Amino acid sequence: xxxxxxxxxxxxxxxxxxxxxxxxxxxxxxxxxxxxxxxxxxxxxxxxxxxxxxxxxxxxxxxxxxxxxxxxxxxxxxxxxxxxxxxxxxxxxxxxxxxxxxxxxxxxxxxxxxxxxxxxxxxxxxxxxxxxxxxxxxxxxxxxxxxxxxxxxxxxxxxxxxxxxxxxxxxxxxxxxxxxxxxxxxxxxxxxxxxxxxxxxxxxxxxxxxxxxxxxxxxxxxxxxxxxxxxxxxxxxxxxxxxxxxxxxxxx
Length: 252
Fold this sequence. Notes:
- The chain has one domain (31-248).
- The protein has ten helices and no strands.
- The chain has helices spanning 3-12, 15-23, 31-55, 59-105, 107-119, 125-136, 139-150, 160-176, 189-215, 219-248.
- The longest helix is centred in the N-terminal third of the chain and has 47 residues, at 59-105.
- The radius of gyration is 25 Å and the shape is elongated.
- The mean pLDDT is 82.
- The chain crosses the membrane at residues 164-187, 193-214, 226-248.
């Protein structure tokens, strides 16, 4: 590690910087929602484009189908994510209520659960008992510890509305990119498709690269992996449209 990176790390781990970082909400809390929305949006619209091209439909049909699919699927996905996060938050609240009840009815049993949880983390003897006493002296800390440690549930950052908006906006913005060439009437259908293909490939690759920067994954590997996933979905849609046109006469 070079001196510059070491100095930066030391700066980040000063007591006041640590306190500020722990108090601040996570900047990447809704990034998974945005990544999921972006990938699914691009796959969905480009699958429509490739399917229409494979079936021999006109550019106008591909554009109309793509826009309709973009709006409907984006809304559906946002609502689904809202409901999922809302259900998760309700589940966490239910677990909290149950833990409050358990503390009221069997406090020594709940205290023993705290003891065994931290015993498995390596605490023992007097240190273990001080940890148990400290946690159990504050009822809210006690409950939150049980929720996260015993049940393995996330207790912060559950915002259904923000998750839904992150998913919807990423879906719409990224998903609209493969449709842009079809709004250019001066391009012939083949060039529209090839341009859309290039744009979609770029979107997949950029999403993969962005994901790698946040989650500290290999940059090129992550970009190519996401590109291959999107390419596989697009290829499946193309051959489905092509086979439908060949077997059933579906087309213009």
